């Protein structure tokens, strides 16, 4: 591994002392409202690493992803992308266009920027559908798919342009518990294949432990990093891991951390 100053070439993204303050416009009577969403966040994510972010509602998890995406400007600090900054984003809702078929939904970005030849794009969409187990649904419309299938299309769409980093904001939050577990396993399978760097926001501590190499635990607003927990459970992992004492111990540790951070405020 070649070292450069501060980062290694194997760093996918590094945040250094990142702050985000939202300032809402002054209303007729009141003063401008200020919300400190991120406070001195420093984090280095290695290429191919799966990192989850957990923390209480409103602590700045989505803001962190938005800062990385460039959807919102950080107030201070630095962000470095070591291996390229092409990102794919998956939201809680799959946000598919109901009037386009599954294949055409995968091809949305292609139809806008024509980065690939149409043939290449079509082939990639086909390969994506087969990886997601959705070949038979290529010509169906989103409304004909279950919630889990729709979200799988959402993940496929984010992967279509081979992003260096996959950002996921509560991607399984709208699914029922069983589908959610299954989607976690599907995501792990996809990840085991090409080891994308993943930043995954979730409210579920077991989900974060099952999927991740490390779990970033954040404090209530303004979001700081309370601690980063290593999940050194062997891979490949499966749902049966959840019942092991090692798994339970890590879940408990994160829960205790979140509770103590909550009560400190
Ligand atoms: N565009 C905005 N303008 C003003 N304040 C904002 C804006 N976006 C977010 N905030 C505030 O910043 C704080 C952090 O929000 P954020 O959505 O990042 O939290 P979160 O941890 O993702 O929350 P949740 O878990 O509930 O989704 C919240 O207090 C929120 O109200």
Instruction: Give the fraction of residues assigned to helices.
Output: 25-40%
Helix tally equals 8
Q: Give the strand content.
A: 15-25%
In total, the number of strands is: 9
CATH level 1 name of the largest domain: Alpha Beta
Instruction: Write the element-wise H/E pattern from the N-terminal end onward.
Output: EEEHEEHHHHEHEHEEH
Tell the overall outline: globular
Report the CATH architecture of the largest domain: 3-Layer(aba) Sandwich
How many domains, as an integer? 2
Main beta sheet? 6 strands, mixed
Q: CATH homologous superfamily of the largest domain - what is it? A: P-loop containing nucleotide triphosphate hydrolases
**From the alpha-carbon coordinates, what is the Rg to the nearest angstrom?**
19 Å
Strand arrangement within the widest β-sheet reads 5-6-7-3-8-9
Can you tell me the residue ranges where pLDDT is under 50 for at least 5 consecutive residues?
1-5
N→C terminal distance = 42 Å
Query: Would you tell me the structural class of the helices and strands?
Result: alpha/beta
């Amino acid at each position: 591994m070649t070292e450069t100053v501060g980062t290694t070439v194997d760093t996918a993204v590094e945040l250094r002392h990142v702050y985000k303050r939202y300032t809402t416009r002054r209303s007729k009577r009141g003063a401008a409202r200020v919300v400190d969403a991120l406070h001195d966040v420093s984090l280095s994510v290695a290429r191919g690493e799966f990192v989850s972010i957990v923390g209480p509602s409103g602590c700045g998890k989505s803001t962190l992803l938005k800062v990385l995406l460039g959807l919102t400007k950080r107030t201070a600090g630095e962000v470095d992308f070591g291996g390229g900054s092409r990102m794919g984003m998956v939201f809680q809702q799959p946000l598919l266009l109901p009037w386009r078929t599954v294949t055409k939904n995968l091809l949305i970005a292609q139809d806008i920027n024509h980065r690939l030849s149409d043939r290449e794009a079509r082939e990639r969409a086909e390969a994506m559908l087969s990886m997601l187990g959705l070949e038979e649904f290529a010509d169906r419309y989103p409304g004909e798919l279950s919630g889990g299938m729709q979200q799988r299309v959402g993940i496929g769409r984010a992967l279509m342009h081979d992003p260096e980093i996959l950002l996921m904001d509560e991607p399984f939050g709208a699914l029922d518990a069983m589908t959610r577990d299954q989607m976690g396993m599907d995501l792990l399978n996809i990840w085991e294949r090409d080891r994308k760097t993943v930043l995954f926001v979730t409210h579920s501590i077991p989900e974060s432990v099952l999927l991740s190499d490390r779990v970033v635990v954040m404090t209530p607003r303004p979001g700081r990093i309370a601690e980063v927990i290593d999940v050194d459970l062997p891979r490949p992992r499966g749902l049966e891991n959840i019942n092991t004492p090692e798994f339970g111990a890590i879940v408990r540790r994160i829960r205790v951390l979140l509770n103590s951070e909550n009560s400190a405020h």
